[in-house]
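Box S1 | Example of a co-folding query
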Amino acid sequence: MEKVICFRNIGELIQVQSRRQTPKLVKKTRCALLVSQGRVNRVIRESEVNHHDFSREVDLKGRSVLPGLVDCHTHLIFAGDRKDEMEQRMAGTSYMEIHKNGDGILNTVNATRQATEDELYETARLRIRRMMTLGTTAFEIKSGYGLDLDTEKKMLRVGQRLRKNLRVPLTLTYMGAHAAPQGKTIQQYFEFVMEHLPEFRNLADGVDIFCERDVFTVAHLRRLFLHAKLVGFHQLRAHVDEFAHQGGCHNAARLGAISCDHLEHITPHDIRALQLSGTTAVLMPGVTFFLGGKKNPPVHAMIEAGVTLALATDCNPGSGPSYNMQTVLGLAQSLYRITPDQALIAATHGSARALDGHNDYGGLLPGQRADFIVLKTNDYRDLFYYFGENFVDQTYSAGKKVNGEKDPVAF
Ligand SMILES: [Zn+2]
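Box S1 (continued) | Returned holo structure for zinc ion
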């Protein structure tokens, strides 16, 4: 007989349905979730639970069950920290001024170059374990703190090892075009990235570029994307229009980007391009909050245009050190004035779409991975209302509990 685990006595079960329509939350009460071979089998009413039918039963005590959160934009493999810069920013220096002075990303580059592969693996593993405890069940990780061949490859090898050992959905992105290393101009370094792009094809699923004033231009973005397509990368993503409008968003969308990320300064023209191309807009309110930014992306105009929204932490040591998607949910609601339903759809189905994983996870639908979280209460809106508390009691990945007493509390 097929082994079926019955997660019963669920007070409120949330799924995200998306077939043939704009995604919507579906709430079921007093039900049970059946899981076989790590995937959702089906949902039945609690009154239909027959205790003889299952290989195992788990009593969830009337709590709320949601799809696991998906963090579709992180830089979580890195060494060191940038707390000194945080203090400089509080004294009035901007993020981009710090970058131009040769600090910022380059500080992390130095620390990451010096770290061994095992050291990077262990710190990243602890971060992911912590993120899982907080409810994240699928991840994206970018390279970009090497800016040389050895370190960029070292970072992506660490990512591959994490994917193999942790057995969670994990998308890897080569982001050589993150900044220019010391001693090279942007143009010189960009040509180097282009020349060596094919060497990263077997290490990463996609490419990304930091298209911003004083970093890479729209012309660089266009050349990188065209070359990446030829080399065989399927997923093109870009950091665009975060600090000023450069036109990166509509150019990336037109070239078939799977996601455009940040988007604080996009225009109606850019929104139209996202709409036409079906590119997902990845929003990271934690970065705005941490950097003390005043400008939010035009979220409501994107919703009206039918653009798919995703939410992510941007977990990185400079502009967004948080790795907590629950915080991102709370910030998205208050900074963007969106409802809990809209924020939760963006942090599950939307983020899964940004990784092309939406058929496999993000909805808690039959056939999808049984990646879900059990809250401490029976109302998922508590995540938004009592903001700042960890409301995740249990996290399941492919039907297996992945949090517990041995979880690290810090890294
Ligand atoms: Zn980023």
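The two ends are 43 Å apart (CA to CA). Residues 5-68+363-401 form a domain with the Urease, subunit C; domain 1 fold (CATH 2.30.40.10).
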